[in-house]
Amino acid sequence: MGTVRGRSFPGLSRNVGQGQSWVIGSPGPIIALAGDDVILPCHFKPAINDFSGTVEWTRLDLDPPYVHVHQSGRLMVQNQNPLYKYRTVLFLDELKNGNVSLKLFGVKIYDEGRYLCFSPNIRREAFIQLNVGAASSPVINMSKSSSGVVLKCESKGWYPEPELFWLDAEGKLLSAGAPETVRGPDGLYTVSSRVTVEERHSNSYTCTVQQRKIQQTREAHIHIPGETCLFNR
After folding, report:
1. Domain named Ig-like: which ranges (predicted)?
2. What is the predicted pLDDT for the residue at 57?
3. Is the peptide bond before 46 cis (omega within 30 degrees of 0)?
4. Closest by alpha carbon to 154, among 143, 138, 166?
5. pLDDT score, position 231
């Protein structure tokens, strides 16, 4: 079993021979959060009627590289990378329509990478980039010091490494030290930051944690002085 390489473009490949055959992937990265199911799109155009050939999904950075191989109407498990066993399916009813998209269950951080959708029958391929992330809501704790009120914001379980910043009630950035970031043995990041404010100033504050690559933002809000109200979204 081997992959035939030809000239390829992100998300799209073409074979100019007797007619034209296309393999269409995704023009941009696919984003998934850890624990979710995700579909990596791939289509033959035109569709191959009564398709009974081979579809290979691979990641060339793995050994063995085979994520899912569909041949003669069934999944070929003997060469499948153990990381993907029982976690992948094709839409068998859609093969006749040219849909060879891969569904991946229970996304893991290590699933992030560049996937290759390939058909030896038409000798064409398309690359699909999967970006995987993790996000969680921050929590604010409050304490008092001689210089004012100390607010600490902490958020656990992020990937990739996020950024954290504080805003006042008017949406202006607060001056705070660089956030502290720690990466755990599970590969996830915990980020935290402290800021000292005076009670006589604006009494509503927001801690924002975001990771632009995976398009995730989480916020926590606090109101002081008096009864402290914490809520996340």
Report:
1. 10-117, 120-223
2. 96
3. yes
4. 138
5. 43
**At residue 70, what are phi and psi to the nearest 5 degrees?**
-110, 120
Single out the residue of 57, 168, 180 nearest to residue 111, CA to CA. Answer: 57
Cα 98 from Cα 42, distance rounded (Å): 8
The structure's pTM equals: 0.77
What is residue 49's predicted lDDT score, i.e. its pLDDT?
66
- The tokens describing 73, both together, are 């109407």
pLDDT tens track for 146-182: 778 899 999 999 999 999 999 998 889 998 888 999 9
Q: What's the mean per-residue pLDDT of the chain?
A: 85
Query: 13 Cβ partners below 8 Å, 6+ apart?
Result: 6, 7, 22, 23, 124, 125, 126
Q: Are strands 139-145 and 66-71 parallel, antiparallel or unpaired?
A: unpaired
CATH assignment of 139-232, among 3.60.15.10, 3.40.1390.10, 2.60.40.10, 2.40.30.20 = 2.60.40.10
